[in-house]
Amino acid sequence: MENNIIIELKNISVSFDGEKILDSIDLYIRDKEFVTLLGPSGCGKTTTLRIIGGFLQPEGGEVIFDGKKINGVPAYKRQVNTIFQRYALFPHLNVFDNVAFGLKVRKVPKNVIADKVAEMLELVNLKGFDKRKVSSLSGGQQQRVAIARALAIDPKVLLLDEPLAALDLKLRKDMQNELKNIQQKLGITFIYVTHDQEEALSMSDTIVVMDSGKIQQIGSPTDVYNEPKNAFVADFIGESNILDGVMLRDKFVRFAGADFVCVDSGYSTNENVDVVIRPEDVDVVSPEKAMLRGDVTNVTFKGVYYEIIVDIKGFKWMIQTTRFYEVGQTIGLSIEPNAIHIMKKSEYSGKFGDYSSFSEEYDTLDVNTEEEEDTETQKIDDETEEGLSVE
Amino acid sequence: MNKRTHSAPRRRGLSFLLDAPYVLWSALFIVIPLVIVVFYSFTDAEDNFTFENISAISNYGTTIRISIEYSVIATLITLVISYPFAYFMTKTSANAQRTQMLLVMLPMWMNLLIRTYAWMNILEKNGIINRFIMLLGGDPLKLLGTPAAVIFGMVYNYLPYMILPIYTVMSKLDPSLLDAASDLGSNAFQRILRVIFPLSVPGVVSGVAMVFVPSISTFYISQKLGSGKILLIGDTVERFIKTSYNYNMGAALSLLLMVIILVCMFVMNRFSSDDEEIVV
User: Which residue of A has its CA nearest to B174?
Assistant: First the structure.
């Protein structure tokens, strides 16, 4: 059962206006698996989803569903349903009719429809909302209606296109749990598209990291976090200090002007590599006992920890520590062998993992997103109020 | 919410000043003329109150019947042409849509009278159509002066007023709704029936109103293309006022026209807001 492959993409390519959106994608998805396509906007993740959903025909390659090629099969004949980014609820129908839409199209008897809709609304905690107009619902509630509507026709695979992007943080976390629970309860395959690495890590069985139309890495959340394949993956998922290094011999690497014991092997002698060190894996020690020494250039309080930027021979490291260090203070760093991850050089080498540009620029970006979220806050308020009144 | 209630009293003085020109305008050009129409309808030539004009309306049964008939037929034909036209228009590229929109609007840049005169020339006994038929050896057709010509004139002149609102509503339709409908198993026909049509009803309603109202009250199209043989309510009103100087009877028929239009609008509005009425 575990290895029952439900969807397979073979050598899928798509281009738009001469620009390659997907470049020879190969991917298989197992039945009952929670797969996340993760990547920045424009990486091709939504395009991949639309190909599986049948809204887009690939220029080359095969889409295989349950062992059969379905390239030419239109969306309405596929046993795959989609949760759209902006929910795409029918504004002229109430909650009941939205959820019943797929069943009515299939000419299911009325009493069966009523039972199924009731069951679905209960599943998404919207019992008693049947007659409500969809425009009167909060973002979270609309999201639930969209889920109920897609699940009402018993799809084998559910495609979710950034379904939580429009919700605020708190609601997003709740919905993440809820979606995961629904997926496990119904035992169907979820293919989830997001650009939020945290969301991907906490929900998925398998993460497919994509960038510029190519799959960068496929693996479990722990795999992609602990063993990123290249600088892009290391940087996109979590924070990373990525340095140029030289593999002196097996389990021995030189970077930042010092030699370190590591756990990786299988590289040729003196091979140039990328070295990844996660900010939380660095220990701050007194400068005398340290492997590396540097000056603190920036300190940000993050609640649980301080995020400090340390300048070591011109390279800015990000380090997370629970103790406070002042700007200008010289500190020492110590790195355990298993905190060092070695990657082969790739096209992404040198592009990521240096925090020297980590400054006001990022702060202004943050301000903007917060303002956007403010408008959403009202929606949660509504959500919680309505939630209470129903219970 | 709080902000709005706070600032309302302060703004009242200013908003009164800003509203004044419009209130004055409405009073001068809408309310007062309406009152005059009502006054004339219920008085005789000596300004004495009477129901005679109103009861005389029953003499114009045929006129009223064909007015309603022709304008309803014209509205339906316009709708049947416009709906698919607007639908397929939204399926074309943005540039093609702009061009088509321009072509739809183009005739409207010309005066209605001139366009109607042009059609008289095309349809008349020695007009282009008949000359062409005769060239092919056929007998000339009687085109001008028929109900068909009048209805054609209405359809031709008011077609843009139907296409525009339907097109506007359809082009604003969120394409992801159609994706969602296919996703849930509807084929092209079911998508039109279950999503596109219900969501385009507001456009249809305003299109119908914008075609029906000028059609039922027209007098020019019927006079020119009907060769004076087809009298609609509008023609009758014109005759009373211009030829027999019977303002009272003209006003009574105008009032009737207004009532017909108001009833139609009321029915149409009920139809379009049906959904909300049930839910709320």
Answer: A88
Of B183, B279, B280, the CB nearest to A75: B183
- Partner-chain contact B184 A105, CB within 8 Å: yes
pLDDT at B137: 86
* Whole-angstrom distance, CA of residue B213 vs CA of residue A258: 87
Q: What is the mean pLDDT of residues A187-196?
A: 93
Q: Which amino acid appears at position A175 of this protein?
A: M
> What is the rounded distance in angstroms from the CA atom of residue A223 to the CA atom of residue A208?
11
CATH superfamily of A240-358: Nucleic acid-binding proteins (2.40.50.140)
Cβ pair A203, A196 in contact under 8 A = no
pLDDT digits (tens, 9 = 90+) for B116-132: 999 999 998 888 888 89
Give the number of other CB atoms < 10 A from CB of residue A20.
Answer: 15
Whether A362 shows a pLDDT value over 90: the answer reads no
Q: Best interface-test mutation with B: which of A83, A84, A132, A161 has the largest number of B CBs within 10 A?
A: A84
> Regarding the domain with residue range A5-226, which homologous superfamily does it belong to in the CATH classification?
P-loop containing nucleotide triphosphate hydrolases (3.40.50.300)
Residues from chain B contacting residue A74 (CB–CB below 8 Å): 182, 187
Residue B264 pLDDT exceeds 80 = yes
Complete edge-to-edge strand list for the sheet that includes strand A252-255: A258-261, A252-255, A241-249, A271-277, A340-344
Q: Is the pTM of this model over 0.80?
A: no
